[in-house]
Design brief:
By secondary structure, the chain is of the alpha+beta class. It has helices at about 55-60, 135-150, 210-215, 220-230, 255-270, 305, 330-340, and strands spanning about 5, 30-35, 40-45, 50, 70, 75, 95-100, 100-105, 105-110, 120, 160, 165, 170-175, 185-195, 200-210, 245, 250, 285-290, 315. It has seven helices and 19 strands. Strands 5, 6, 9, 10, 13, 14 and 15 form a seven-stranded mixed sheet that branches. Strands 3-2-4 form a three-stranded antiparallel sheet, with no helix packed on it.
Length: about 350
């Protein structure tokens, strides 16, 4: 059996402490910042790891849009194998390029007009090159974007970033030769957030071409892309900034309600027992987060020990468990997006999930 993947994203747990650096409204140029070693805030430093940009002086707001804080929050994704999420049907297609005799998308926007839209820009596709893309690999991104547009339905204010109007999030996706099969699978993360709501306006996702082909052939690549795109919209990456974490538990109200429903359903089907098959004990009102895997995994994913096959644990499995689907995306995960500040859709669009 292929072992589960551990997502290494060193910047997933962070929060802003504005007192740690000068008022950003007075800055006319990007200020170099570095992540604090404790991953509790970002602070001024000499290194370029995270760039904070005063967009208020650089760009005029669009319509009712917010100003933007520009970041580089992408980190490596470890490679230990994954499982699959089936792609959604292709919706609206943007510009189509003809590359090396193969028709590929150069951009794709998910969702309906006036709703939450994810725009994916496929870098490297032009009349002379595929940029490492295939239709199957692109469809994994299309499926992930459409899935997120079904989970998040509320439109966000447009923003201007580097002269581009963004509604609602724009993700730059690329394929690259990194280190061949195995090793580093890729990099992913958000690259800009709205200054007021803190909801992301841009992200970046890069994958090793050889690894993408490998996992695509195994039927596993769709899930990799969906999991990482969820981090781009704020899952795990904005929790501490939004005050949604206490110790090793997630405390967002909507998520707690969804978790308590799962606990009640488990108890009802197990004669009142709150002990899972693996011996873990459930406690209502406390949504357990991952505590293993280091700073990039711990605290920014659901607990693998409790939620097992759920897609947004830090370790994604390749097999179903006790009748549940392989890596379902649960109503509890959608509730966490609501706790972040998104307007979410119908829970009926989510996968069936139960504790086992």
């Amino acid at each position: 059996m292929t072992p589960p993947v551990k997502f290494l994203k060193l910047s997933e747990s962070f929060a802003f402490d504005w007192a740690d650096f000068p008022a950003w409204t007075d800055m006319a140029a990007p200020v170099p910042l570095l992540l604090d070693p404790g991953f509790d805030h970002i602070v001024p430093a000499g290194g370029p790891a995270v760039a904070y940009t005063d967009v208020k002086t650089a760009h005029a707001p669009v319509e009712h849009g917010e100003d933007v804080i520009e970041l580089d929050m992408t980190d490596s994704i470890d490679d230990h194998g994954m499982s699959a999420l089936r792609s959604a049907a292709i919706g609206s297609v943007g510009d189509i390029g003809v590359a090396a005799g193969t028709r590929l998308m150069t951009t794709y926007t998910s969702g309906a007009v006036g709703k939450y839209n994810v725009t994916v820009n496929f870098q490297g596709v032009n009349s002379l090159s595929t940029g490492g893309w295939t239709s199957s690999i692109q469809n994994a991104f299309v499926g992930a974007a459409e899935r997120i547009s079904k989970m998040i339905v509320g439109d966000l204010p447009s923003v201007m970033l580097n002269g581009r109007k963004i509604d609602d999030i724009q993700i730059t996706a690329s394929m690259s030769t990194i280190d061949g099969v195995g090793g580093v699978l890729g990099q992913a993360g958000m690259t800009a957030i709205r200054a007021t709501s803190m909801l992301p306006s841009s992200g970046a996702m890069k994958f090793d071409t050889a690894d993408a082909q490998r996992y695509l052939g195994m039927g596993l690549f769709d899930e990799i892309v969906t999991h990482e795109m969820m981090h781009c919209v704020g899952y795990g990456t904005l929790w501490k900034a939004k005050g949604l974490v206490a110790g090793t538990n997630f405390i967002g109200q909507k998520t707690v309600e969804a978790f308590n429903t799962l606990v009640d359903e488990y108890a009802a089907s197990h004669e009142g027992s709150l002990t899972l098959a693996n011996g873990a004990v459930l406690f209502k009102d406390l949504v357990p987060l991952e505590t293993s895997g280091g700073a990039g995994t711990a605290g920014s994913h659901w607990s693998e020990n409790i939620f097992n096959t759920e897609m947004m644990t830090g370790y994604l499995d390749t097999a179903a468990a006790n009748g549940t689907a392989v890596a379902p995306l649960s109503a509890m995960t959608m509730a966490s997006l609501q706790d972040l500040g998104y307007m979410t859709g119908d829970v009926g669009a989510m996968d069936s999930f139960r504790l086992v």
